[in-house]
Specification:
The chain is extended. The protein has a domain of 62 residues. It starts with 16 loop residues before the first helix and ends with a helix. The chain has five helices and no strands. The mean pLDDT is 80.
Length: 110
């Protein structure tokens, strides 16, 4: 019987300049405390950081830099929970009588 040789992994392709810039931007966002800061501070921070990244990654065109900023702003945005995205009238609120509105009213009415 012949012995099978392990082939090892194929070498990974080098990351594109866009991927490198994106990873660097995400690291800066986490390290600099951008998440949770005031929107005007985030805007100022992103303005300065995008200038830095444009100088550092001169291979990126304006569209790629714009896409990079959008990704960074989404990454730094506060997390949206299901309660945040629910319509205003669909939340469970306490009524003056002490019972909750919504599904419980249907149960109480039966």
């Amino acid at each position: 019987m012949s012995r099978q040789r392990s082939r090892g992994r194929a070498p990974a392709a080098p990351a594109s300049p866009f991927d490198q810039a994106r990873d660097e931007l995400f690291q800066h966002v986490m390290r600099c405390g951008v998440i949770g800061s005031a929107p005007e501070h985030q805007t100022e921070w992103f303005d300065e950081t995008m200038k830095y990244l444009a100088d550092r990654y001169h291979e990126l065109n304006k569209k790629e830099l714009g896409d990079l900023r959008v990704l960074g702003e989404r990454f730094a945005a506060p997390r949206v929970t299901p309660e945040d995205s629910a319509p205003a009238g669909s939340t469970m609120e306490s009524s003056p009588e002490g019972s909750e509105t919504g599904e419980l009213d249907a149960v109480n009415a039966a």
